[in-house]
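Lab notebook, design round three. We kept the backbone fixed and only want residue identities now. Task for the bench partner: fill in a sequence for the structure below.
Input structure tokens:
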């Protein structure tokens, strides 16, 4: 680890102090407003390094190798974050509306494909799942608790978490399970809930991405939305909707499964950008 090399000889990482950490960042992080500053790291890079170092010392604290995380008290300059391309829940609902309309008139093969699409995308949109989490759900990890269907989903870092499969998510999920028997699983893929129709293998993130874009084009979303759209934007949209509905940021953090609330703070900034843009538009109205 680069930080370990910055410590005095014969000193180990558990002996590092906040002053050591601050000095390390100061030695390598340039002033982004000074083009002549020779230090190597941008402020954005420094924040990424801080997150990595924070993770290591959190582990050390859990293992009782240290009493206090020396990174927690070290503050870095804020960096300019380029305003993100946003996709609204209204745009996402247009995709679902189109898919449901097609389902009513589709031939048997297209019906199976659209049922798969809607089930996967609803999971991601309503439960704020990452695409890899939705694609990896297994039949053996489904259970019914007090009449409620639940799925144990492998989260980032292989941490399993229980999710209720209810409401519109439950409707689309169960609808897919009824049609799943028409797909022959490939060897080794029998336990995955979501299977590719032709190969019988579990669906991949690229396949989910491709189907989302196909549906978005068919739903006549404009080019700006198509350029911004990705499976992860479903998760972003749900987070912003939760904040707009008044959910505390800690609740949003728990749903998104962010290790640090600093990551969730990005969505607050996104929501603020949206608010400012809306106020500018209202001010421009005659």
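Proposed sequence:
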């Amino acid at each position: 680890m680069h930080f370990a090399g910055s410590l005095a000889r014969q000193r180990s990482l558990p002996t590092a102090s906040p002053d050591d950490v601050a000095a390390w960042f100061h030695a390598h992080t340039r002033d982004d407003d000074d083009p002549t500053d020779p230090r190597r790291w941008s402020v954005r890079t420094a924040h990424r390094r801080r997150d990595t170092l924070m993770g290591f010392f959190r582990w050390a604290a859990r293992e009782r190798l240290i009493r206090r995380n020396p990174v927690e008290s070290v503050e870095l300059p804020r960096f300019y974050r380029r305003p993100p391309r946003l996709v609204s829940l209204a745009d996402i609902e247009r995709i679902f509306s189109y898919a449901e309309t097609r389902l009513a008139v589709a031939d048997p093969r297209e019906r199976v494909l659209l049922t798969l699409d809607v089930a996967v995308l609803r999971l991601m949109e309503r439960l704020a799942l990452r695409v890899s989490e939705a694609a990896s759900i297994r039949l053996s990890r489904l259970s019914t608790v007090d009449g409620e269907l639940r799925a144990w989903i492998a989260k980032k870092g292989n941490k399993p978490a229980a999710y209720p499969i209810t409401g519109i998510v439950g409707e689309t999920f169960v609808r897919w399970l009824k049609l799943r028997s028409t797909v022959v699983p490939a060897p080794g893929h029998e336990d995955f809930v979501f299977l590719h129709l032709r190969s019988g293998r579990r669906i991949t993130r690229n396949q989910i991405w491709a189907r989302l874009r196909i549906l978005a084009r068919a739903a006549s979303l404009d080019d700006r939305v198509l350029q911004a759209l990705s499976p992860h934007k479903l998760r972003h949209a749900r987070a912003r909707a939760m904040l707009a509905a008044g959910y505390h940021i800690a609740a949003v953090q728990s749903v998104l499964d962010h290790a640090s609330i600093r990551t969730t703070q990005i969505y607050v900034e996104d929501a603020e950008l949206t608010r400012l843009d809306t106020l500018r538009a209202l001010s421009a109205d005659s």
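Keep this in mind before ordering anything: Residues 89-231 form a domain with the hpI Integrase; Chain A fold (CATH 1.10.443.10).
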